[in-house]
Amino acid sequence: MSARPRFTSTEPARDPADEAAASAAARRLAVRVVAARSTGVEDCRDLLDMLGLHSAAGLPGPAIGDLTQFEPPIPGRR
Predict the structure, then answer these.
(1) H helices of the chain, where?
(2) pTM over cut 0.85
(3) Which end of the chain is more exposed for a tag (fewer CB within 10 A), N or C?
(4) Contact call for residues 51 and 34 (beta carbons, < 8 A)
(5) Rounded to the nearest 10 degrees, how much is the dihedral formed by the CA atoms of 9, 25, 57, 32?
(6) Residue 42 burial (C-beta neighbours within 10 Å; 0-12, 13-18, 19+)
(7) Which DSSP category does 77 fall into?
(8) For residue 7, what pLDDT is reported?
């Protein structure tokens, strides 16, 4: 039995700088789509926050006080 891989990649190595640029471009496009489809400023801001796109839009992230800590439910307790 040989230890060589069964399949070899024919795809050239990817440049990390190209990957980062493509990712940034995709985030900017997503911000534009959300802005175009939202019903108002607050709706747009909320959607960008939910999707984690606030930094791509040039907005500050949610305030620390706005974040909530998840607490799993305790069985038998309401």
Answers:
(1) 16-37, 41-51
(2) no
(3) N
(4) yes
(5) -120
(6) exposed
(7) -
(8) 66
Can you tell me which residue has the tokens 């489809």?
A: 37
- CA dist., res. 10 & res. 25, Å (int): 26
- So what's the pLDDT on residue 68? 65
Q: Is the separation of the CB atoms in 40 and 48 below 8 Å?
A: no
Q: Backbone dihedral region of 28: left (phi > 0), alpha (psi from -120 to 50 degrees) or beta?
A: alpha
Nearest to 23 by CA among 47, 59, 56, 45: 56
Closest-CA residue to 47 (of 77, 56, 18, 2): 56
In total, the chain counts a number of residues equal to 78
Please give the structure tokens belonging to residue 35.
């802005």
Mean pLDDT by 10 residues, the chain (78 residues): 66 78 89 92 88 80 62 76
**Coil, strand or helix at 11:** coil
